[in-house]
Amino acid sequence: MPKNPVQCQFVAALDSIVGKWKPIILYHLLQGKPLRFNELRRLLPDITQRMLTLHLRELEEEELVKRVIYPQIPPKVEYSITEYGMSLSPVLETLHQWGLAHVKRKQLKKAKNEQTETD
């Protein structure tokens, strides 16, 4: 049985950006300025150093993130979004807005359920 081409396209896209941290890393880098590793760590306080390193490498392999090493001591490394990575901006912004609406919806549902239980 042949593979579903639509399914394959979704899988290919999601393989590049899915993970607990990848969309958030990309979202921060889409804000425009290059960020150093420790700046990203501060923006994502719950991520481990190993996981941040892993995700940055994977995003770099996908050509979504660019890593620049400056020849100085101590070494300075900055991460920025690539032009190709910029193409994810509308997708991530839409996902961010949907997530915001989804959280609000869940909060309203929880409040409604709690109100029903107290009535």
Care to describe what's here?
It comes from Paenibacillus thalictri. The chain has helices spanning 5-17, 22-29, 37-43, 49-61, 83-86, 89-118; strands spanning 35-36, 65-70, 76-81. The chain is mainly alpha-helical and 119 residues long. The chain has one domain: Winged helix-like DNA-binding domain superfamily/Winged helix DNA-binding domain (Arc Repressor Mutant, subunit A), CATH 1.10.10. A 3-stranded antiparallel β-sheet has the order 1-3-2. The model has no long low-confidence stretch (mean pLDDT 90).
CATH architecture: Orthogonal Bundle
Query: How many β-strands, per DSSP?
Result: 3
Low-confidence stretches: none
Number of domains: 1
Tell me the name of the CATH class.
Answer: Mainly Alpha
C-alpha Rg (nearest Å) = 19 Å
Major sheet strand order:
1-3-2
> Which of globular, elongated, flat, extended, rod-shaped describes the shape?
extended
**N-to-C terminal Cα separation, in Å?**
55 Å
Task: Write the H/E string, N to C.
Answer: HHEHHEEHH
Helix content: 55-70%
> What structural class do helix, strand and pairing data support?
mainly alpha
Strand content: 5-15%
**Based on the structure, what is the oligomeric state of the protein chains?**
single chain
Number of helices: 6
Short précis:
With 119 residues, the protein is mainly α. The protein has helices spanning 5-17, 22-29, 37-43, 49-61, 83-86, 89-118, and strands spanning 35-36, 65-70, 76-81.
